[in-house]
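[agent] plan:
  1. take the single chain provided in the ticket
  2. run structure prediction with default settings
  3. attach structure tokens to the ticket
  4. add a short note for the reviewer (M.T.)
[agent] executing step 1
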Amino acid sequence: MNISLSPVSKKNKKTLAVLLFKYQKELFKKENIGMYKYLDSYWGRKDRSPFFIEYDSNRIGFVLVNKHTLVTNDARNIAEFYILKKFRNKRMGKNAAFKVFEMFPGKWEIREMENNINAQNFWRKIIGEYTNGKYSEVFLNNELWKGPVQIFDTLLK
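[agent] step 2 finished; step 3 output follows
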């Protein structure tokens, strides 16, 4: 399976914005979704990295990586992760996640919203497989986040 991650250049920001719109519309089940408020911050800041997920040169999703963590110091976080529906359940998300972890070795924190059971199941499975079960999970319930957080280190797998 030929999954790759390609950095999103500023000239492709509108393409990413369209995918983010689809993602948020699906996630929040609303038609009137505004612009992703952190989009512009993914260019010009060293702690943020936007990538298109590609399969045989077709854009099938995106991943936004940053260092905005709530539990672990000096770790990475997947802020947003999206695979278009027609490409799901084909191991493409798993392969993309593994590539992200390999691209940024070290400490990670992955968060899911409390009511997003599909995302929780996906990330627990992916992280569990990648780390051979060597991860911990906490549940945050504060003004910053409400939901589970998986914590792991790719160098300790």
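[agent] step 4 note for reviewer: The chain has one domain: 3-156.
[agent] ticket updated
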